[in-house]
Amino acid sequence: MEIQQRLLIFVTRSNWLLFAGASLLGVFTATPAFARGIIFGGLIVTVNFHLLYRTLKKALTPPHLASHGVVLAKYYIRFALSGVILFFLISQHVVNPLGLFVGLSVVVASIIFATVVELTKLILKEAV
């Protein structure tokens, strides 16, 4: 399996695991608004990541290659919709902004984690 495919699978799975872990940790240890922030932020960013994956996979898989304009339009629509949802959540005091920030960091954390795992594999492979 190529490194790109392995990274994609790892990041996709770790997104959901980190989201579930952070959400459970927030529910059991934080205030309700902070926990809601983690849950909503994690859900928004994880769903956006999966929708971006589906959009790019459809656009780059022959024989139905999509133009870059279509991909960008879908991206900006998702971005604007996420912005509206985030604005509503913060302006209506549904979530704690710091909890929302933690939740929105789920995908970034999984990408960093995947990078560290792959670098460790490469370093250990070279050492042997």
What's this model, at a glance?
With 128 residues, this protein is mainly alpha-helical. The chain has five helices and no strands.
Structure write-up:
- The chain is mostly helical.
- The protein has one domain.
- Helix content is 86%, strand content 0%.
- It has five helices and no strands.
- α1 runs antiparallel to α2 and α2 runs parallel beside α4.
Q: Summarize the helix and strand pattern as letters.
A: HHHHH
Strand content: under 5%
Number of strands: 0
Shape: flat
| DSSP helical segment count | 5
Helix content: over 70%
Largest sheet: none
* Alpha-carbon Rg, integer: 17 Å
Low-confidence stretches are: none
Q: Look at the structure and give the mean pLDDT.
A: 90
Q: Please give the alpha-carbon distance between the first and last residues.
A: 21 Å
Q: How many domains, in number, for the residues?
A: 1
Structural category is: mainly alpha
Map the helices and strands.
Layout: H1 3-29, H2 32-60, H3 68-91, H4 97-104, H5 106-127
Helix pairs in contact: 1-2, 1-5, 2-3, 2-4
Features:
86% helix; 0% strand; mainly alpha
